[in-house]
Amino acid sequence: MKGAELGMLLDDWVGRRRLQLGLALRVTVAATLTLAVARTVKLPLPLWAVLTAVIVTQGSVGRSLRATIDYLLATLGGVAYGGTIAVLVPHASEVSLLAVLALAVAPLALAAAVNPRLSAAPVTAIIVLLLPAITHTSALASAYDRLLEVSVGGAMGLVVSFLLLPSRAHGQALAAAAQTLEEMASVLRALIASLAQGLDIDTLRRIQDGVGLSLARLNAIAIEAEHERSAGIGGGPATGPLLRTLLRLRHDLVMIGRATHVPLPEELQSRLRAPLELAAAAMAEFLLASGAALRARRGPPPFGAVEKGLVALTSQIGVIRSEGLTRSLAADPAERFFALGFALEQMRNDCSDLARCVSEWAGKPAIKRA
Fold it and tell me: Which among 241, 246, 267 has a CA at the least distance from the CA of 334?
C-alpha cells in the first residue's frame, strides 16, 4: 500500500474515532496528572485518587460532573458510616471483624441497590474498615485519607474534563438524535416495503430494536446534557422536546409495524401501494435530512414533499372509503387499514414537531406549514 493511501486511511480512521481518541487522551492525562499531584501533596495511597480521576473523566463534561458529585456523596456516606462502625464496634478478633464487616457493608449495599448513585459507599466502608490493618493507621485516619484521595481525584478529573478537549453532552445528544432518525428512516422503508408479504413477529421486533437502543442511548446522554445546563456549563435548548418528539415518532413506527405485519387484501394493496411508497419515501427522506441538519446545526429540511405524499395517500384512502371497499372487510384487516392511515397522519404531525425542534437547535425560526 502506498504512503498516500495509508495516510488517507489513517486520516479517515482518526476522523471517525475523534471522540474516542479525545476521551482516551483525557483519561490518560487525568491519571498521570492526578498521580503527580497526589505525590506532591504526599497522599498515603495515590491509587484511589488516580482511580477516581479515571472514573470521572470517562464521558462528557456533564457525565464527569455527575460522576464526581455522586462519587463524593457516596464516599462521604461510606466514610461516615464505615468510620463510625470501625471506631465504635470492637473487632480485634477474626470473628468480630467478620461481624463488623457485615454490619458495615449490609446497609450500604442495600442503599446502593436502591439508589445506584451510592454504589461507591459500600466499597468506601470496606476500605475504611480493613485498610488500617494493612497500613497500621487508625480508622479515623483511614477515613480522612480516603476522603482526601477521592476529593483530589475528583477535582483533577473535573479540571481535565473542562480544559482538555471537553466533550459536551449537548453535542453528543445531537449525534445520538441524528443516528436515531437514521434508524427510523430505515425502519419506515422496511415496513412499507414488506406491505405485500407481511413480516413475522421476530423479524418485526428485530427491525424495531435498533430504534429502541438508539433512543435508550439518547435518553442517557440527555440526562448528562441537562446536568450541564443546570450547572451553567452547557448551552443550547433543553433536550426534552427533541427526546419526546423522537419517542412519539417511535410510537408511530410501532403502530405502522402492527398495521403492516400481516398483508392487507390484494385489492387494497394495489390501490395503496403507490401513494404509500410515495408518502413513506418522503417521510424517510425528511427524517434523514433532519438528522443531517441536527448534526450541522442548520435549519430543518423542506416539509413540502411530506405534505404532498400524505395528501396523495389521504386522498386515495378517501376514494377507497367512498367506493365502499372497506365495508366488506373482516374486522382485522379493516382495523389495520384505518390504523395505517392514522399512524401515517400522526407521523406527519410529529415530523412537523421535529422540524420545530431542529429549528430550535439551529437557532432559526421554524418553517411554517402551509
Answer: 267
Sign of CA dihedral 287, 293, 294, 299: negative
d(Cα 287, Cα 136) in Å, to the nearest integer? 64
pLDDT tens-digit readout, 278-323: 888 899 999 999 999 988 888 899 988 888 888 888 888 888 878 7
Determine the Cα angle at 135 with ends 134 and 137, to 5°. 120
**Stretch(es) of the chain classified as CATH 1.20.58.220:** 169-362
* Distance between CA atoms of residues 80 and 74, nearest Å: 10
CATH for 169-362? 1.20.58.220
How big is the CA angle at 314 (ends 311 and 318), to the nearest 5 degrees? 135
**What is the radius of gyration, based on Cα positions, of the chain?**
28
Q: What gap in Å lies between CA 74 and CA 69, rounded to an integer?
A: 8
The grid coordinates of residue 216 equal: 435508550
pTM above 0.85, yes or no: no
pLDDT in tens, 59-116: 666 666 677 778 788 888 988 898 888 888 887 788 888 998 999 999 999 999 999 8
Q: Which residues contact 142 (CB under 8 A, 6 or more apart)?
A: 83, 86, 127, 128, 131, 132, 135
Please name the residue that has the C-alpha cell 434523514: 288
As given in the structure block, the three cell numbers for residue 351 are 415530523
Coil, strand or helix: which one is 301?
coil
